[in-house]
Every structure is written in structure tokens, then in C-alpha cells.
Amino acid sequence: xxxxxxxxxxxxxxxxxxxxxxxxxxxxxxxxxxxxxxxxxxxxxxxxxxxxxxxxxxxxxxxxxxxxxxxxxxxxxxxxxxxxxxxxxxxxxxxxxxxxxxxxxxxxxxxxxxxxxxxxxxxxxxxxxxxxxxxxxxxxxxxxxxxxxxxxxxxxxxxxxxxxxxxxxxxxxxxxxxxxxxxxxxxxxxxxxxxxxxxxxxxxxxxxxxxxxxxxxxxxxxxxxxxxxxxxxxxxxxxxxxxxxxxxxxxxxxxxxxxxxxxxxxxxxxxxxxxxxxxxxxxxxxxxxxxxxxxxxxxxxxxxxxxxxxxxxxxxxxxxxxxxxxxxxxxxxxxxxxxxxxxxxxxxxxxxxxxxxxxxxxxxxxxxxxxxxxxxxxxxxxxxxxxxxxxxxxxxxxxxxxxxxxxxxxxxxxxxxxxxxxxxxxxxxxxxxxxxxxxxx
Length: 441
What we know:
With 441 residues, this protein is of the alpha/beta class. Helix content is 43%, strand content 13%. Helix 12 (246-260) runs parallel beside helix 20 (401-416), helix 12 (246-260) packs across helix 21 (422-437) and helix 20 (401-416) runs antiparallel to helix 21.
């Protein structure tokens, strides 16, 4: 999340999405190391070795290595092998192949949006008892942390990374446009109006930006609008989308931005170009998470963070937690994996991970620590993201979510590029998404 000023640190999205093509080629290859089918991971002296496919790069990887070293000193009979050689954006492919081959890790970093599919495997360990008996009461975790790992009332993974969305404003551009900074309670109509006023087409300046690839980066920014209008991802019947009406209204905001030419549409995965436009003082507002603050500070941007707008005046946002998912390689290794994740979630470890690697606190106990409070005091806008967790919602842990997301992503891009109206785009989205929801799983 937030780096010491002057220290190069990748954003969370860059950490998780870096590595693309070369790593993807390895996703389906045979898994080596201490995966299932090789041994039980227990040495003659009783030491248990577990393998963790952590999915991190650069700074986050170094932080995890430091935490593992401390854990091993405290637990000399457990060794954590940080193997796997694949970053988080292709973890699903590698884990799926590994499970099919019967050679999988003990712990893997799984995106929250992928958990439902992974958890269908009988090799995934149920962690309900672990979290309910852990040193931090389960109810002390933010609701977003709990909801993102719960499927059919069972906890299927441990929370790994927590975030939320808010709006970061370039104060310099607001001053030049004669606009007051937005305040909590502002509306999406205010957002569209601000974006229009901030735009200077002749100077290559945009009011805001939106990822335009149709992937999850494009889609998850839509759910707060849909939820605020009373919609949901999946209808109560489980057989159709829950945003057939509200989705079109939410897309009207996208259409207004496109019509005004006030939105920079990033054509590449990862949103890096969109953020570069903001960091070069050519974008007035960007909807983002706390992972982006280090880059914004390093660029010397005079910024402010405000909550997301709404239609209703009520606070609303989304959190996109990711997970540590445990796989069953025998009782000894499963228990060692539980021991490590329980230790990692303790506030004294969690706060290190949050400050150094870029997450919001998983629990209120971590949030209350002096180290985190000091971080908040020193970091402009960080408190807005943490406060947003009070009302943050998460995407459902549903096996058809990827298809629903893909259909909505196509609709958002069609509207962003002026290729369709919100109504037509939403109808096409509903056709594809509803068909996916009817497939037995």
C-alpha cells in the first residue's frame, strides 16, 4: 500500500498482474517441489515442510520472505517453501492444472473472484474451525474479509489482501478548473459534472479514467453503482442476474462520461496507462484503491481522497479481497498450513504485511494498533479507504461469477467506446450471463 517516500515500490495491481506471457506458458506445466504425490512433507526429525505458491513479486515477496523467516524461528518444526514460480494473475491456471495432476501446493494465493471455482475441489481444506478458534475473533475481521472467503456458510480460505475503492483527486487540476473538492455524500451526477469541467481536450487532459479491456478491472468498478441502485450480481433465484434493470441505469454514468469525452479509456490490461495519465497531471480524478497511493506520492501529486459517489447519498464501495487457499496434502501438512496462516493473521504480523506490502488491515484489532494508526496519520487519504470498509461489499463467491463478469465487461466496453447504448449493452450482457447461470455446476 504505502511506501516510505523515495523507495521504489510497485502498486498492488502491478504486483499481482506483472509477469504475463512467460509465466502463463508455465501455468500448465508439471508441478515440482513438495506437492502431493511426492511425500508427506514430514522429515525423520518430525519437521514438516509446506509449499506456498504466494503469487507475489518484488516488495511483497520480500515482505513475505521476512515474515516466513520469523515464523520458522518461532516454529522450528515447520518449514515454509515459497515455491511455485508463478504470479497471482495466472495462479488459477496453474492450480487447476496441479489439482488435475494430483500434485498441488499446501497454500496458494487465489483471487477472491476465483475462489468458488477452486473450492469445488475436494482437495481444498475447510478452514471454518481454524478461523472460529483463532486468536482474533472471526467477527473482529471486517465483513468484507469474512464474506470473500465464505461459501455455503463454510470458510473455504483465509483472507490475504484487503482493499476498497475511493476517488483520488488531483487538487492542482481542481484549483485550475475552479472546482471545490468533492465531499462525502456527493453523487454520480456530481462526478460526471466534475469530469466534464476538468477535461481539456486540446491539452490532452481528462476528467477521469476507466479500464477498457473488459476484464475484472473494468467490471468491479461497476458493482458499487449497481448495489446502490438496489441491484445485485445474481438474483435471489440463482438463475439470472440481479441487475437487469439497475445495470442499464448504472451504465448511463459510463455513457455520460463517454459522451462528454471526459474519460480516458485504457486499452491495455493492468490499467497502467490510465494511472500514468493521472500521475502526469493529465487526469483530474481516478477511482482506485490504497495500493496506488505510493505511486501518487512518489510522483509528487498534490492529492485528496474522497469516498465514492452514490445515487442514494448513502456510503457505498466495493472491496476485492484475495485469499490464501489451503489444499489437503495429508493431516501433518494441512495442520502446519493452518498454523502458519493463523500466525500470519495475528495483528502483529498482519500490520507488517499491511504497511510494507500494501493491504488494509484484515481485522479491527490490526486497525487499532499504534503502527497502523501512525501509518494513517502519515498518509494522506488512507483513512478514507479504511473507513470505507464499514460499508464495503464484496463480489459473491459464486462459480458462475467469471462468466457474469465477462458479460458485464463487454457491456461496459461497448458503452465506453460508444458502440452501444446502455440498454442494448445490458440486454446482451443479460443473455450471456443468464445462460451461464443456468449451467449446472
